[in-house]
Write a structure and sequence with these properties.
Blueprint lengths: L2 H11 L1 H9 L1 H8 L3 H9 L2 H8 L8 H4 L5
Helix pairs in contact: 1-2, 2-3, 3-4
């Protein structure tokens, strides 16, 4: 399982992590251990790259991190 997959699963089960992510997505992803490249891929919203990384053709597990709230 990739770091991105683990992060997506953690967001789905850890309310504190999700709250911190909503406040500062890049900071939280880097602190979680994602690489700068993984962070940039997520923030770019490149669905082709995300599908390849997650192995989830329906993108069910990734909707939350692909669309962080804008302030």
């Amino acid at each position: 399982m990739s770091n991105v997959q683990k992060f997506a699963q953690a967001l789905a089960t850890d309310a504190a992590l999700l709250e911190a992510y909503n406040a500062s997505p890049e900071k939280v992803m880097l602190e979680y251990g994602l690489t700068k490249e993984e962070v940039n891929m997520i923030l770019s919203g490149d669905m082709s790259a995300l599908k390849k990384q997650l192995g989830d053709q329906e993108m069910k597990s990734f909707v939350v991190i692909a669309t962080p709230s804008e302030k």
